[in-house]
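Troubleshooting log. The previous run stalled partway through. Resubmitting the same four chains, unchanged.
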Amino acid sequence: MGKISVGIVGATGYTGLELARILGGHPAVSIAFATSESYAGRCLSAVHPAAPSLPLVALEGAPLAEADVVFLCLPHAESALVAAEALAMGVRVVDLSADFRLKDAAVYRAWYGLEHPAPDLLQEAAYGLTEFARPHLPAARLVTNPGCYPTSILLALQPLLAVGAANGTIIADSKSGVSGAGRTPKQETHFVEVADNFSPYSIGRSHRHLPEIEQQMRCWNPDSPQLIFSPHLLPVPRGILSTIYMPLKGSWNESRLYDLYQEQYQSEPFVQVLEPGKLPSLAHVNYTNKCVIGLVVAGETAVLTAAIDNLGKGAAGQAVQNMNVMFGIEEIVGLIG
Amino acid sequence: MGKISVGIVGATGYTGLELARILGGHPAVSIAFATSESYAGRCLSAVHPAAPSLPLVALEGAPLAEADVVFLCLPHAESALVAAEALAMGVRVVDLSADFRLKDAAVYRAWYGLEHPAPDLLQEAAYGLTEFARPHLPAARLVTNPGCYPTSILLALQPLLAVGAANGTIIADSKSGVSGAGRTPKQETHFVEVADNFSPYSIGRSHRHLPEIEQQMRCWNPDSPQLIFSPHLLPVPRGILSTIYMPLKGSWNESRLYDLYQEQYQSEPFVQVLEPGKLPSLAHVNYTNKCVIGLVVAGETAVLTAAIDNLGKGAAGQAVQNMNVMFGIEEIVGLIG
Amino acid sequence: MGKISVGIVGATGYTGLELARILGGHPAVSIAFATSESYAGRCLSAVHPAAPSLPLVALEGAPLAEADVVFLCLPHAESALVAAEALAMGVRVVDLSADFRLKDAAVYRAWYGLEHPAPDLLQEAAYGLTEFARPHLPAARLVTNPGCYPTSILLALQPLLAVGAANGTIIADSKSGVSGAGRTPKQETHFVEVADNFSPYSIGRSHRHLPEIEQQMRCWNPDSPQLIFSPHLLPVPRGILSTIYMPLKGSWNESRLYDLYQEQYQSEPFVQVLEPGKLPSLAHVNYTNKCVIGLVVAGETAVLTAAIDNLGKGAAGQAVQNMNVMFGIEEIVGLIG
Amino acid sequence: MGKISVGIVGATGYTGLELARILGGHPAVSIAFATSESYAGRCLSAVHPAAPSLPLVALEGAPLAEADVVFLCLPHAESALVAAEALAMGVRVVDLSADFRLKDAAVYRAWYGLEHPAPDLLQEAAYGLTEFARPHLPAARLVTNPGCYPTSILLALQPLLAVGAANGTIIADSKSGVSGAGRTPKQETHFVEVADNFSPYSIGRSHRHLPEIEQQMRCWNPDSPQLIFSPHLLPVPRGILSTIYMPLKGSWNESRLYDLYQEQYQSEPFVQVLEPGKLPSLAHVNYTNKCVIGLVVAGETAVLTAAIDNLGKGAAGQAVQNMNVMFGIEEIVGLIG
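Second attempt completed without errors. Output:
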């Protein structure tokens, strides 16, 4: 079989750079093109010294139709338009923006403040939390890659949600490295503002990842409770750790919890459930595609901890994992588990 | 009036160093002695380049009786013995260890695994969360300085607890800088292990600060619910931020919450309540004696955020604040608000 | 005597914020105004949570004439114009920009690529390396505050240069924290680009601080050799450490070097010479106005190390030290030595 | 051909962990054993969460004779004894300690303060700076892996030294991440002491890497000048950047320098020479086996900058590169260039 020809649209952000790094070492892939508006005509290694030497082209000059699949790392609203264009050419799409994560155009409008640019595609888009999306991926034309926070929270919640063990409001207290805020320089990502600091932001029910998470929770269990979601900015370049509190129905201890999670995840190449008494940290996951989950029971509450690399399993890694399944390649190829 | 003569027992840990720094600039204080077993005969500036040039003496050679008050920065169990000795000489004590925080010797035994060395003093010890301890401090012989995590959590909880608004299990998700783990080198505080990392530890109901917090919660409201407390290690030298989730009884919005907290704290020199929509961060508080509190309501849950400097309001700063009240000095003297 | 009325022009950069912090605690100063173009109408604490609550006004609305002295924290070229305006009103000026550091307008043109906006003031400006400027400051209308790198390098070089001990090209290998690059967000100061990284820039003879340093070297010794100056960006918020290599004429050992430096600096409140065998670090100086110097002799070469806080002795601290001397106040008032 | 059977002796330090990571992914290698005294009986992933799940055995229980080659990551003096033992069994050795770097037992005694434990092996040991050791490696029984600082400095110096361009004392001002100081917790590697700090140490002519560097300089040119070497501790986990100043004989500009370095290195897979005007940083090299070199001419002085990952090209990476050559495998296998 020939190599999969891929395009990276928006290669100079942190997600695009990570995709270039992973795909550059993927034995079944050939990179057809990588786009950038601001760096067109230059080389990706001019953007970041550790990046591969890919030539960068403007999107309008990119040979879109030559790709088997394009990865879109664009701002929301822009991404949907390019996705529609690529699909029209018969090119498959893995979209890393938020454009196709919400199924309902009205919800999109409410959270993003604008009309969805391609509402007709919303139902078709497969939600690419790979571990739960496998049946849909081989035939999918359009895969929407989950958000970084949602990936960490949903993988931790699924087993208990699915058995109906949730007994009231769930709290996800999440902490993310700065690459999650993008590569465009802003006051709040200036080194001097972030170093030695730690900041909550958009806590409660106000962050755009909230409806994405709740939508998927309801897919797994229509009676899922409400979520409170509190993101915080960590002074590290990468990594997410979510600490999740779920009130429990029924009688649970850590051993029973461990059995439930092992049943779900023990054959997963990228999800590792720690034995009771052990807790994950960013050191478990950074520069990998893994999600590592810790299990504690405190009184009637499960305290779940989940760590991922926001650029790995939280973005580029999971996108490649999805691509592998879409194209019938072994799921772990090109990824670190 | 003459200066207050103070002794610092255990001056070479981070808490002792911070006390030396604050007391060295305090206009109403003269430092009678500073002790260290491992550095006796040397100077505090040999321990840390920014420390004042205090000579260090071994505890057995320290002129304990010359001090009006001693600050104890010793490991638990050791501290209680020195406290008893100092009190017997008529010297007042501010103890920064955990020895006098728990009122019940049986609870101490359960959490610390040993008999309390001075159980007769437990009832006498005033719990020095200054904002709520003022009536007791001027006459107190023995003040027990609150733990760092408890200070951040209790100041945030008090107004809602006192009015009986808590409606079920409270969750405190806390994040602390590394100086909270002490100055003795350990694998888990090695720079390479902490940098770029973020780790939960002792989460649920297993950290020794839990019984201290719950004891004080019950002082304010005997019907206080259970607490789940999850500490995490932040890759920064100093600062604590606690994100606290309290299910609410009755009808609350952020405006009503703000009024309640302002009523409690608006005249406090070291507690700052942020307007709804604003959130605290470590940058608000580091190198100060402040506690800054943010207020969010999400559905039926209050999301309280509280930031302190763990070495300031969480340890040495609050100890000096307590000393100021004990000796009738204006409370803000020598401290940064 | 009444308080000195000061204005801060450009209060929202890191230098301006540090000035506000120091001057806000200075017992002999009252802050008449603080200016900002982008934040006019708001409060300085909206810019940084630890800043004092100063109202910010646009420069054109600032009561310039009411100040006894203004501190200018503006980009070069802008600063000279405001300086001229203030002086014309009889207001004294401490300029923290580069505009008056070079005595020769042609040199300014060569390094800054534009005509000097106020060349008539160049000769009058006193070069405010306080330890060597004291005779000129009480009468000075216009003081030009030295650059941060030059302060660290010049204080280390002066004693050996003055006795004519330099024997060939001097090398200054300097490392600076990120606040030295300003508060405006740029790609190269984005947290993710700086963290875990370390970068040389403008090394050799290409950084704008080079002519400033060489000019002052020639003031002390017309036969001063050439300088090679290599700045590097450190992943810390603040602090500069310069490691300086001077080939030596004559016979030197560390003891003789120490005597020479002690003779020059032992009565200085803000310059500390370490005994042979000890070396400075950023921990010696950050959040102070100190310069700490270490002395090593290796063969025929002196290896001098000098540490300062780039925002303290390297900018705002030294500016206040200069103000103290200008107005006949004790030099250490308001500063940490 | 069968896989190379390797043993890692001392697998739980940072160098051993990095070797385990690289060798675990090396397609031509099978790991026969990994040793640890303190963790024997446990698994390497218990030491570090990102490490592979290798069982750890005590050295005395390790099947030394089954390995084709052992990598020694032991303290000096211990290493030489194990090397002698392995060689006696016919097992080849790559020693990552300092034991075989100095050819002269008297020099070893002077710098390490003890008699060399296996002086008979000193002459045989091949100095494994791979780029210059290739002819000797295929037949070598014992390869001594260069120090981390020496690797960065020697690769930068070689082309100019070899053509006799050095004209007086060379200065190497080097900065290293904390993993270079080892994994054993010490006061000076405690997170709180290192964060926000930057410190010179052993500067001048007192660091143990100095004689190693000068010995190799003299191999390339017996008339090599003296070196002054100043290491500094950077607040990052990994990476070394050396800034090197060489006075030049003859007429040089950056273009001529670039030609000379390209001639030497352009076909090297792991040495990258940057075009004039570009400078290396840790971001160029971390997590790779690369050395990236920048070239500046300032007056009569070459300012060379060289970056490596101290655990990669500075230790484990180069050790594997040496192994590849020793066993006739393509040099880049298993390594990131």
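Takeaways: The mean pLDDT of chain B is 97. Chain B touches chain A at residues 168-169, 171, 173, 175, 193, 196-201, 203-205, 226, 228, 230, 232, 234-239, 241, 243, 245, 247, 279-283, 286, 294, 296-301, 303, 305 (CB under 8 Å).
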